[in-house]
């Protein structure tokens, strides 16, 4: 089974974080959550409500953190997941996150992005020429980063799997689990 690293921070979307963590653990994989510090991150709940042009945000649960970004040794992991919410907006500027994410892309290891999670590799120029999904309002950002934006629940481009947001998590999870299985991760 794989050892999977999840990169997140405060204001990450609760379902974008919790669903993959639980699904991967259910599948027998070891999941390690990394954030800017060892303090538990404060998650938020994004929802779609009538009368709103954008999604709403409410406080969510806290997610325990296993490791600070600075202490991550990317070579210890076989896959990476970057959940959405507002956390990607600021973790993408962290030099340790850049080092970690580039490691996975340069080795063509499985990478999953959910919703706004695609902002992290996009900021590093890693989506150029690749197909990706993301939250639909990010279409222009993804295209400016050189990606081909696909409005779909489970966009697979080689070892990368992306989706638009938490409503897509069943499809995204099935696709990510297939990519992880096909990566021939040592047991």
UniProtKB/TrEMBL annotation:
Task: Print the keywords alphabetically.
Answer: Glycosidase, Hydrolase, Protease
Any one Gene Ontology BP term: proteolysis
Which Gene3D superfamilies does this entry report, sorted A to Z?
3.40.50.880
Name listed for the protein in its UniProt record = Protease I
Q: Taking every annotated instance into account, which residue ranges of this chain make up the domain DJ-1/PfpI?
A: 2-177
EC nos:
3.2.-.-
Q: Which family does it belong to?
A: Belongs to the peptidase C56 family.
Please tell me which top-level EC class this enzyme sits in: hydrolase
Query: Which superkingdom, per the lineage?
Result: Bacteria
Q: SUPFAM superfamilies attached here?
A: Class I glutamine amidotransferase-like
Which InterPro entries does the UniProt record give?
A: C56_PfpI-like, Class_I_gatase-like, DJ-1/PfpI
Q: Which CDD domains match?
A: GATase1_PfpI_1
NCBIfam families recorded for this chain? PfpI
Q: Does the keyword Protease apply?
A: yes
Key word Protease present: yes
Q: Name one GO molecular function term.
A: peptidase activity
């Amino acid at each position: 089974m794989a050892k999977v690293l999840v990169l997140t921070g405060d204001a990450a979307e609760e379902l974008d974080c919790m669903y993959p963590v639980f699904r991967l653990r259910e599948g027998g994989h070891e999941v390690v959550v990394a954030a800017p510090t060892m303090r538990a991150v404060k998650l938020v709940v994004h929802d779609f409500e009538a009368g709103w042009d954008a999604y709403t945000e409410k406080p969510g649960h806290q997610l325990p953190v296993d490791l600070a970004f600075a202490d991550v040794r990317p070579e210890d992991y076989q896959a990476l997941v970057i959940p959405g919410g507002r956390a990607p907006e600021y973790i993408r500027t962290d030099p340790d996150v850049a080092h970690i994410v580039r490691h996975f892309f340069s080795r063509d290891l499985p990478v999953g992005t959910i919703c706004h999670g695609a902002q992290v590799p996009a900021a590093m120029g890693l989506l150029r020429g690749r197909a990706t999904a993301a939250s639909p309002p990010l279409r222009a950002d993804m295209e400016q980063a050189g990606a081909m934006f696909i409005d779909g629940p489970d966009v697979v481009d080689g070892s990368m799997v992306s989706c638009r947001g938490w409503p897509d998590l069943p499809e995204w999870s099935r696709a990510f689990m297939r990519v992880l299985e096909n990566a021939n991760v040592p047991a």
